[in-house]
Amino acid sequence: MAENTAIADTICRTIELGVTITGAALDGHERTHLYCELLAADDRCPGCGEPGRLRDHVHREVADLPIVGHPTRLHLQVPRFRCETATCPQAIFRAGIDDIVAPRTQVTRRTTAWMLQRMIVDKMSVKSVAAAVGLGWDTVNAIALSAARNLAATPERLDRVRVLGVDEHKWKHVRGQGDPSFVTVLVDLTPVVDGTGPARLLDMVAGRSKAALKNWLDARDQAFRDRIRVVTMDGFAGYRTATAETLDRARAVMDPFHVVHLAAEKLTRCRQRIQTATCGHRGRSGDPLYGIRRTLLTRTGLLTDKQKTRLKIGLDAHDEHVAIAITYAVYQELIAAYEQPHRREGKIAMYKLLKRIRTGLPAGLAELAQLGRSLWARRAEILAYFDTGASNGPVEAINGRLEHLRGIALGFRNLRHYILRSLIHSGGLAERLHAL
Questions:
Q1: CA 37, CA 295: separation in Å to the nearest integer?
Q2: Residue 113 lies in a domain
Q3: 3-class SS at 22?
Q4: Looking at the chain, which terminus has fewer C-beta neighbours within 10 angstroms, N or C?
Q5: CA 399, CA 166: separation in Å to the nearest integer?
Q6: Is 355 within a domain?
């Protein structure tokens, strides 16, 4: 009998819980029931520390790891003791099982870690995990979110953060419902810059404003703020101001994607203005400028011979198209500066370009002049990219993953729930699972 018990304990891994199997049964719901006793029950009184006398046992049923694909229930016989110290106020006490089951929970600690691992590492849905452990969706969801909250709140997650990415994210497309539609996303880019791993989501804050970022930074300790050396962001001035006021040692970097996107917007507006001035209407099929609207935004090195020919014909079709040609040339120079194989050469090329278009442009280049003023005002953040090599690309990638998460969940209504689910999905919590 003892040999059979040892085999069962080994197969079901109950020995690592500090319990031994005394019986087993199956029910009509395909669940396995294991009846267990504690191997070394602590009989010391929590009031006086003296050993107590066994009084009786209480029954505790909890969910455990699935066995061969079927839900499992542990039935623990927990001993209760009577304290025989006359001066002790504790008359009856129960042996502690907190190492096996957290207080006021329905699953063992290892099952909580298993559920979170399935969601984080294997990308399983709550529904699938709930079916595996034989619990309700709401129960499993609450357990997973509570565990994720605890992992995300550990100070160790912020210990090595030196490069911080900041961006906005639209988490819902329905007005009302109390919470703001936008959140500020904060991402650790340190592993990407160091080449040691992917970016990870640190947190999400309601709103997209200077106050949203500044309040989050103020809530962190001074040691964390002193460690931040680089903050990447888009062109939003609120994030830049919050960084300047809160992080004295950090260097702000305007993301290359947003710099190029700003130039593309000005090029498009210039094309639309000239289109209306020369044709008297918005672009239509057959119009020379309308036919090259996408080609204008394509990097020169990616153009086919046919596209190059179409582009030349479109730009040469009218004398007033020269404004578009000049703006297009600047747009391509901007991209070429970022493409330089050596960052120093790219920085020099970028500085010369920004200086050339900041003032003194001929009439008829209103969009390019506006672009020049805007980029020159942010030249420090634009040129900082070439010194740091940090960009918001990984932040945009996480934003895309969160968009997919929201899509497969058919929408979220509770912001707090969405933030915690996003941390499970993209927060890099897998390396912290051992802490559960």
A1: 74
A2: no
A3: strand
A4: N
A5: 11
A6: yes
DSSP secondary structure of 162-188: -EEEEEEEE---SS-SSS-SEEEEEEE
Which one, of 262, 216, 263, lies nearest residue 239 by Cα? 216
**What sign for the dihedral angle of Cα 291, 292, 297, 298?**
positive
Residue 4: predicted pLDDT: 62
Coil/strand/helix, residue 304: coil
Amino acid letter, residue 32 = T
**pLDDT at position 127, please?**
87
Strands (E), 189-289: 200-206, 230-233, 251-254
Q: Which residues contact 56 (CB under 8 A, 6 or more apart)?
A: 79, 80
What pLDDT, on a 0 to 100 scale, did the predictor assign at position 102?
87
- What's the residue count for the chain? 436
pTM above 0.85, yes or no: no
- CATH number for the domain spanning 213: value is 3.30.420.10
Same domain assignment for residues 353 and 296 = yes
Co-location of 275 and 375 in the same domain: yes
| Pair 83, 34 in one domain | yes
pLDDT for position 125: 82
The distance from CA 69 to its chain's CA centroid, rounded to whole angstroms, is 31
How far apart CA 80 and CA 96 sit, in angstroms, is 10
Number of domains observed in the structure of the chain:
3
Residues of the chain predicted below pLDDT 50: none
Residues 289 and 367 in one domain: yes
Question: Is the domain of 349 the same as that of 267?
Answer: yes
295/180 same-domain check:
no
Nearest to 75 by CA among 113, 2, 23: 23
Domain of residue 22, residue span:
1-101
pLDDT of residue 435: 62
- What local confidence, expressed as pLDDT, does residue 68 receive? 85
Whole-number Cα distances in Å, 316 to 269, 288, 292, 310, 382: 19, 9, 12, 10, 33
Kindly state whether residue 151 falls inside one of the protein's structural domains: no
Q: What is the pLDDT of residues 240-256, one digit of tens each?
A: 999 999 998 899 999 99
Q: Where are the beta strands (DSSP E) in 215-323?
A: 230-233, 251-254
Do residues 380 and 367 make contact, with C-beta atoms less than 8 angstroms apart?
A: no
**Cα-only R_g, the chain:** 31
Residue at 379 is within a domain? yes
Per DSSP, the residues of 121-170 read: TS---HHHHHHHHT--HHHHHHHHHHHHHHHHT-GGGGTT--EEEEEEEE
